[in-house]
Amino acid sequence: MRCRGTMQRFEDLISAIKTHVDRRHDGYTPLYHRIQRAIRDTIADGELGEDDVLPPERDLAQALGVSRVTVRNAIRSLVTDGLLVQRQGAGTFVSRRIEMPLTMPTSFSEEMTSRGMAPEYKMLDRHTAPATPNEIDMLELSPGTLVTRLYRVRYANKKPMCLELACVPADALPEDADIGTSLYLHLDKNNQRPVRALQKLRAELLDTEQARLLGVPPGSAALFIEQQSFLADGRPIEYVRSYYRGDSYDFVAELKM
């Protein structure tokens, strides 16, 4: 049974969504698209915030005078776009998005902790081997130099957030070195924490295995970041390739005029 406060909240949200649906009535736009756009507008206006739950499909359908299938299709499209997330047995929620700065190299663990979230990782692979030609170029190494590679899934509050393949010269990260919860903290202890980085970003679609590891449908949008990190003396110390969930991240850069 819903409490009175929850019922009133749902009624207010349904009223707001209905207002947006009616506002977009032009005789041409399909109702399914109007509902989809109305939910987007309700989120943009701040009437629905991060982690807020949507009213039940049945209530929305009844208030809007449409079938539950129409409402379900609109919601499913927003889930695919990453704006909403469905939690088994709990309902449909507005996705929580994280703003990540692009101004300086940051530790994933430190960034999540600063937002009150619990960072974790799952090590998928860790090994030491001679650097590849690309790694030699990015880390400015001599042929045959050993590097240590870390392939991890990064989590925040138990939610998989990104896939990360980090490569560090083995003399800075021996194969048996304990990195604890953060690679950057380990490097910091040895006075080898990067102070600046170059990044290349592009949009990509996750393949089946990547999507499985991140808990999203295959073909979901991701932001691929290739990062080359440097020490204070200008030497490269880290080369990272990461896939960030497109439904969870906004990357922010400050531009000075």
What structural category arises from helix and sheet content? alpha+beta
Quote the average pLDDT.
Answer: 84
Low-pLDDT windows of residues: none
How can the largest sheet be summarized? 6 strands, antiparallel
C-alpha termini separation: 55 Å
Order of helices and strands: HHHHEEEHEHEEHEHEEE
Morphology call: elongated
Q: Approximately how much helix is present in the residues?
A: 25-40%
What percent strand?
25-35%
Q: Cα-atom Rg, whole angstroms?
A: 23 Å
The total count of helices amounts to 8
How many individual β-strands? 10
Strand order of the largest sheet: 4-5-6-9-8-7
Explain the overall architecture.
There is one protein chain. The protein is built from 8 helices and 10 strands. It is of the alpha+beta class. The strands form 3 sheets. It has a 6-stranded antiparallel β-sheet with strand order 4-5-6-9-8-7. Strands 1-2 form a two-stranded antiparallel sheet. Helix 1 packs across helix 2, helix 1 crosses helix 3 and helix 2 packs across helix 4. The longest helix has 20 residues.
